[in-house]
Design a protein that fits this description.
The protein has 352 residues and is α/β, with parallel strands linked by helices. It has 18 helices and six strands. Helix 8 crosses helix 9 and helix 12 runs antiparallel to helix 13. It starts with a helix and ends with a helix.
């Protein structure tokens, strides 16, 4: 019995715990990190290896950065950062870039920190690797994190990548950050694109960020103002059937937040002043009304009936150039006019 107790005591005293790893050799620690199933032990091993900063431990720490355990991943990134930004190690640089897409915010933040410190220390390899993520990162988190790393790093290539992102990025969070970075870097050449985004982007956060970016750049903010004309009906007897369409169209445009819509009362007032008694006005007449209202664009809806089918067309015309900027068309049964107007207006706003 005494012999059994002595064996058990020897086993317990020799068992590795998180509390007794500090005096162990680096090879022993690496072996435990690779083979142990005890998360607390492995985290402590990683911390000790990070404090020692011995090059032999780098491969094990790099492997642990992709561990299934979040605690181990976080500890590994912190340990790798402890080696300092001047250490030029391909494996560690790759870990930083890979972890820019980690689902854990704290892990991503450490990868961002490590990446920035390496670039700040003069690593061109890291700079090129992170820049590639801005446009080619498979995960939106990677692209977002890469932009955070580079937002204060100088370079015309970075400027170009950010401007390209505000045009091509599909994720609104990433697109908004790209817009913010363009504003903070004061890239004046991006002002026309930012003005378009401020008006046309479907995401409200991106539109607000674009307006703020324009202010930071010191650029003029173009205010797109449109006047919605009364709907032109053919034949004229159709006017009663489609009455109210232009009011619905103006309301949808105003609620979209894409443009500023002139109040209907102002449109009616100017049309009366210009002696347009006939509500079926043509493009040239609409442009004259738009100029009188100081609108930059006019929206001209029209409806045509053939038998029991109605075709509705909506055009957006630039007052200065008289160019048709956007248009939408839809046809449907006369007894389903509500669905038809929803369809054509949705198409029109989506194509602006």
């Amino acid at each position: 019995m005494k012999h059994i107790l002595m064996v058990m005591l020897m086993f317990v005293s020799g068992a590795a715990t998180a509390a007794n790893v500090h005096g162990k050799s680096t090879p022993w620690l690496i072996k435990k990190l690779q083979r142990s199933q005890d998360t607390a032990l492995r985290v402590e091993v990683v911390k000790v290896l990070g404090q020692r900063r011995e090059a032999d431990a780098l491969p094990a720490l790099e492997a642990a950065s992709d561990d299934a355990s979040l605690a181990v991943r976080r500890a590994s990134l912190k340990a790798l950062i402890n080696f300092g930004p001047d250490l030029d190690h391909v494996g560690r640089d790759r870990v930083y870039i890979d972890q820019l897409s980690d689902v854990d915010t704290a892990t991503r933040d450490m990868a961002i920190q490590g990446s920035f410190e390496r670039i700040d220390a003069g690593s061109d390899r890291m700079r090129r690797g992170v820049l590639k993520q801005v446009s080619a990162g498979m995960q939106w988190r990677a692209r977002h994190s890469a932009m955070k790393v580079l937002q204060t790093v100088s370079g015309t290539d970075i400027d170009a990548a950010m401007v390209a992102a505000i045009e091509n990025e599909r994720n609104p969070m990433v697109r908004a950050l790209a817009v913010e970075v363009v504003g903070s870097r004061k890239i004046a050449s991006a002002a026309p694109i930012l003005n378009t985004i401020r008006v046309q982007d479907l995401d409200e956060m991106v539109r607000r960020t674009a307006e703020d970016a324009l202010r930071r750049i010191g650029s003029h903010i173009n205010e797109a103002v449109v006047a919605v004309m009364p709907i032109k009906a053919t034949p004229r007897s159709l006017a009663t059937t489609v009455s109210g369409f232009d009011t619905y169209l103006a309301a949808r445009l105003a609620s979209s937040g894409l443009i500023k819509v002139v109040e209907r009362g102002e449109v009616d007032r100017v049309m009366n002043e210009l002696a347009y008694q006939d509500r079926n006005i043509f493009d040239g007449d609409a442009i004259q009304v738009g100029r009188a209202l100081r609108a930059s664009r006019v929206v001209l809806p029209s409806a045509q009936r053939q038998g029991n089918t109605i075709t509705v067309i909506v055009k957006l015309i630039d007052v200065s150039s008289m160019e048709i900027l956007a248009s939408a068309e839809a046809s449907g049964a006369i007894d389903d006019l509500d669905a038809l107007r929803r369809e054509v207006v949705t198409r029109f706003i989506g194509g602006m």
